[in-house]
Amino acid sequence: MGDIAIPCFVFAKILHKNPAVIASDLKNGLEQKKEELGLDEVICVGGYCNLFVNRKLFVENTLTKAADGNHGVEKIGEKKTVCMDYSSPNIAKNFHVGHLRTTVIGNSLYKIYDKLGYNVVRINHLGDWGTQFGKLIVAYKKWSSKEAVEKNGIQELLDIYVKFNNEKEEHPELMDEARSWFVAMEHGDEEALSIWEWFKDISMVEFERVYDMLGISFDSYTGESFYREKVPALVELLKEKNLLIESQGANVIDLSEYDMAPCMITKKDGSSIYHSRDIAAVLYRKEKYDFDKCLYVTGLEQSLHFKQVFKAIELMGLDYYKDLVHVPYGLVSLDGEKFSTRTGNIIYAEDILNEAVKRAYELIEEKNPSLENKGEIAKKVGIGAVIFHDLFNQRIKNINFSWKEVLSFDGTTGPYVQYTYARAKSVLRKYGKELQCTLTDCQALTDDISFALIKTIGGYEKAVNVAAESYEPSIVARYLISLCTDFNKFYQECPILKEENVKTKEARLYLVYVTSQIVFECCGLLGIECPEEM
């Protein structure tokens, strides 16, 4: 097989020719432009046309491009705006492992699109409105106190919420009280809104703590509550377009023609629902940001909800429904692992991250006890390991969480990638001189092992573009593993610091430098920090 192999079987039916004949014809055409295309040789084998590139020219072009300011990635998104809706935890509930998935996937997509030059608006659409807050106010007034909430924080809110749901089975009148409190919130009742704001402030303290650990921030925290006042205008607009019908006292959009359940806009008591608030959010975001695309990074189980919302936008005659994209992801299962959780059936994100840092510290202590700044490095390794484990898998797939896999320094893991970066930086430090960041001798890097690494470096731009097109950070993560694997083979088999030929040594050092830059960039796109030593 050549550096590039073109299978001609796929053209046989179209051209009504034998694949071997097509390959031969292609070879004849390519040979006339070999120099222009940077080819050394074109060989046909059966139905394949194998292209062998001019390695010296390929090395020079690839490394020069990879070492430029944007590492060879074209800014295709300039003057385009993408809204990204992700993370979106529920107020008064702990930030759990499911929120961790949407948060790290969304953050990686933000970084990928930002790399491509898009103006990205990071939106945290907080789950801060709904009948659950009526339940919570009732629970607080019956079974809690200001002192208890201030002492125990969000855990107290969760405990009394669980108690409410248990008690309502025997005392159904509790639901009537909860509905009354939520209607009071919808109508601007001062006491109801004051308690709700307090619950929200307490919740945000925990959320921000997790975001700080992950190094994540947002441009907007406008959640569901922001859109409640926009729902009445939405209802009038839908009435004008003859899209609303009454069903059991509620206002809905009939979607039976599209094999979907009705899209509820307001309940029979007149209160808003998440469908109506999400539709209002689309209208607001288009007006405010004039987005070219709006992504929603949420669980697969919300697919029907977003199909209904997007169909409603289409029926309203708004052509930008085509620019609305649901980016679903699968569930996280636990491989019989024990977590330091505060309840039996909910795995909290903060517990996972803290446990990862703790275990990373123990591993570093075991492998390199004399390392300085172990605590800071353990934080980067532990949190990076959790992020990489999530992003390496295709987002739509369910993932199995196992500490043994997550924190391994071998295989397809975050620590393996970080160790590769630290190894490259160690080589450059040991060189002890200022590296001349230019390619001095391309010919020294045309051997099979060096060339394989350089070919992988050349695939960086494609990996970034395909990841953006498919909303799939795993493409960058898997590319990164390939890059690290090729680099470690190069490191093992090609002498670098011990190379006696000065030009060859400098060329290999330059390759180490460029590789380290691409590894660092890829980790950045995944939201992972790289320690210089491990």
From TrEMBL:
A motif ('HIGH' region) lies at residues 89-99. Residues 417-534 form the DALR anticodon binding domain. GO terms for biological process: arginyl-tRNA aminoacylation. One of its GO terms (cellular component) is cytoplasm. Its EC number is 6.1.1.19. It catalyses: tRNA(Arg) + L-arginine + ATP = L-arginyl-tRNA(Arg) + AMP + diphosphate. CDD domains: Anticodon_Ia_Arg, ArgRS_core. SMART domains: DALR_1 (SM00836). GO terms for molecular function: arginine-tRNA ligase activity; ATP binding. It is found in: Cytoplasm. Belongs to the class-I aminoacyl-tRNA synthetase family. Monomer. This is Arginine--tRNA ligase. It comes from Butyrivibrio fibrisolvens DSM 3071.
